[in-house]
Amino acid sequence: MPILERLKQLNAHLYGLDQPPHPFDPLSITEIEYATAVVREKHGQLKYNAVTLNEPLKKEMLVWLADEENAPRPRRKAEIVAIDKSFMVYDGIVDLVDGKIIAWEKLEGVQPMVCCIINPFQHAPE
């Protein structure tokens, strides 16, 4: 794929235009919101530690890259790490085409990635 076409595709993905995203593009805000809505419908209110692209399999990519015009485009999937109210951690995969959870596992004996949210409007203590 020529570089200019790839840049146009990335721009369309980031700004919500009609062109479908490249299979390795990060999830858009809309895709993240959709994935969490699918999980919420099935599993209720959770906290989301991570919502990222679940990359397509290499064999699917090779088929698509060999003939982008005619080969099936790899499906967009989101990988989700969520925490419930009892601090149990779950790992799942949501198919963004069908809007279905295709994998969901309760992880025993693990701790989610530690992350902090910094509020730029809050002043540091003096």
Structural key phrases:
about 130 residues, alpha+beta, Nuclear Transport Factor 2, Chain: A, 4-stranded antiparallel beta sheet, 4 strands, disordered C terminus
Commentary on this structure:
This protein has 126 residues and is an alpha+beta fold. It has a domain at 26-107: Nuclear Transport Factor 2, Chain: A (Roll), CATH 3.10.450.40. The protein is built from three helices and four strands; from the N terminus they run ααβαβββ. It has a four-stranded antiparallel beta sheet, with helices on one face. β3 (89-95) and β4 form a beta hairpin.
Query: Which fold name fills CATH's third level, the topology of the domain at 26-107?
Result: Nuclear Transport Factor 2, Chain: A
Radius of gyration: 18 Å
Instruction: For the largest sheet, list the strands in their spatial order.
Output: 1-2-3-4
Largest sheet: 4 strands, antiparallel
Main structural class: alpha+beta
